[in-house]
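Collaborator request, handled under Task 6.
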Amino acid sequence: MVWSQSNSLERYLSWRLSLLILPILLIGAWLCYHFALPLWLAISAELILLLLCLNFINTIKNKIFKAFERANLHLEAINQEDFHQYAKAAFKQGKVGEFHQQLNLLSTNLQQQKSRYDQHIFLVYQLTSQLDTPVLVFNEKQQLSFANQAFYQLYKQPWQHYRHSSPARLGLTKANQQWQFTKHEHEQNQQWQIRHSEFIDNGESHQLLIFIDIASAIRSSQLQAWQQIIRVLSHEIRNSLAPVSSLAETLAAKCNTNSTYSERDKTALMVITERCQHLQSFVERYANLSKSFNVNRQWMTVSQLTQPLIALYPELNITVNSTIEKLWADQSLLTQVLINLVKNSQEAEAKQVTLDFSQQQSTYLLKVIDNGHGFSNLDNLFVPLYSTKEQGQGIGLNFCRNIIEQHQGKISLSNNQTVDNQAHGVTVTIKLPAKLSQQHRPTKNSKIL
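Structure tokens returned to the collaborator:
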């Protein structure tokens, strides 16, 4: 039969309930015949009975379909991730009531899962925001939807300034499934290598770009190589110095008790002992050059850093310019760095030294500017054992860089504008990570994407 082959509930109910009309109409016709009603009255009674049956069938169908319509609204709310909307069941008991209870339980479970997911996402983005490595996220429309504070290292602007920007505007292009800077931007961003991956969030595909500082990796590799060389040299020199120094001291002691030795011999032995001690001290300083320091960061004022320098070098005209009152760093180590730099300025015959303190987003910017004779070669200043000074040992600037890198910062040197083809002073730039205040941290209620 047709009703038994129906593929929808509506048709199934229509055929099933329609079968009830025929016996009801037959019973009505028999009653009309039994009471000998006039023909017009019998026809009218049959029509009224037919309409009542149809109305009864529609009422039953609407009541049943209403339960499904409410369930459909509930499922639509779930599909829209609105788990706080609950449809009122048309029948509180039986199968329909049980079905709605299962829907409500599903909404509750999905809400709990979404809450946990949001907490995990919040934690991931909060941790990402604290990374020193730039991280960018582009949404499905290829628009910048999120970046961390380290974005400033790339574009010298807060990432919010470039919100919804395209990769092209940021100087990025994708070729052969690899992200890279355009030729113009690559000249200024050669130190960055781009790693990328894709992830799905809220049903949309996103591009995750991570920028790795190659210069830092190269610097780390070079540092390890120099540390190995210094360890080998230190070991060999110490092994050679120890017996030489011991023999010289023994002979010097005999010279003091034996008058047959001339003063020249005594002086020669003293020189040998002195130079052995000097070499021993020299090797120890280099052995400690690349060791890690116990960096104890704390709040300090700019005056706490600059006042010792002014007191140590009264012959220099030291000027302090600052747009910040305090900074977050190890006071003793940072003071030692500034002392070394000002000492270099003095040895470069500088008369004027300017100390400039400022903050750019999440970075402290410290500059030491002098009017000395500058550097003739900037390429090898941080190479161990290299020095442009006649009596230099190539330790001071390496020591400074080691301290700054222990702060997760960077240091660079550049000659000032040249006058008559000669450098007119040096500018040393130090960048240190600033301590973020609470307003820079993402909150649970902030919209990430």
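The cover message to the collaborator said: "The chain has four domains: 3-109, 130-215, 218-287, 298-439. The CA atoms of residues 179 and 266 lie 71 Å apart. Please let us know whether this matches your experimental observations."
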